[in-house]
Amino acid sequence: MIALTIGTGEYYTKLAHHAAQAVEKMTGLETVILGDEQFKSSGLRYSHHLKLRIFDIVEHDEVMFFDSDLVCLKPWSPPRFAKRDAIVAVAERLHHMVVRACKEWDIPIQEYFNAGLMIFNRQAHHEWLRETERFVTANPGVPSYDPYDQTPLNITRHRMGLKLELLDRRYNWVGFGTGTFDYEVPLYMAHGLKPHYKFANIDFFEGRYKPPFRWHIQINEEETSRLKNQTLCLKGAHQEKALHLNCDGTIGPPYYPGAGRHWFVHDTPDGPRLAITSDTELLREFIRADNGVWESFQELCFDGD
């Protein structure tokens, strides 16, 4: 397996080299950058479409693609997560574009993935990338609300019936830095380090910006794995709720009411707690009673839109 990213133009070339060095250091993978030379010779209109020709450009059979604005912060082993017959990625946040795309193209909303990190292989996925290029060539500007190729990649994957394996968002934390909670959970790949500040990643790599990391929440991997794909009954003050804990750390259906989107189990001095979070905040915690029911321990007010 190799890791591969794209960097064209002065800024993105510099960003890609920094990102590639971090990935190579933290994963041990040989890292390849597709740059101005490959873009010029490709004849493509947009450089991000180079990812659709990965297996036409490199000879390797297994690739972890990552956007150049991803920052690898902790060591991890991408080959451990590779699947012979599935695309490996992380679910996208449920913002307006995702909801609209899923509705218009009949994509199950829990299967819409962020294309900023993908693990795939030549045998199972070369034709998928080719089909996506055919789609964007035949349908320029479609959909109008997604100027890149993320939605086309999701459309073609769903149409072709390709398997999808979703990792939890620690492996591609989209929108990182929008809440203080983001800095409290140890993560592997942050998708940008500071919202609305284009140069934050380069400043970080070159020592001019230090994110306020406070990695005090320690995920209990064993207990988290035990609860994956389970539907639980949660007891609160005067009500009971059923919710499904997906294998990728997302919730539902059944869903958690309101903004609850993610879950994990973490260690505390009093034992493991099941945490329910929004995209940016910890909302509620549960402790397991002797009868196996998870009971509400703490509920935090969420002041969202």
Structural features:
single chain, 305 residues, alpha/beta, Spore Coat Polysaccharide Biosynthesis Protein SpsA, Chain A, 2 domains, 6-stranded mixed sheet, 8 helices, 15 strands, 26% strand, globular
Topology, element by element:
Elements: E1 2-6, H1 9-27, E2 30-34, H2 36-42, H3 54-57, E3 62-66, E4 70-72, E5 86-91, H4 96-105, E6 113-121, H5 122-138, H6 150-160, E7 163-167, E8 173-174, E9 189-191, H7 200-205, H8 221-227, E10 230-235, E11 240-245, E12 262-266, E13 273-277, E14 282-288, E15 294-299
Helix pairs in contact: 5-6
Describe the structure.
- This protein is α/β, with parallel strands linked by helices and 305 residues long.
- It folds into 2 domains: 2-205, Spore Coat Polysaccharide Biosynthesis Protein SpsA, Chain A, CATH 3.90.550; 221-299.
- 27% of the residues lie in helices and 26% in strands.
- The protein has a 6-stranded mixed beta sheet, sandwiched between helices. A 6-stranded mixed beta sheet has the order 11-10-15-14-13-12.
- A hairpin with a 6-residue loop joins strand 12 (262-266) and strand 13 (273-277).
- The longest helix has 19 residues, at 9-27.
- It is globular, with a radius of gyration of 20 Å.
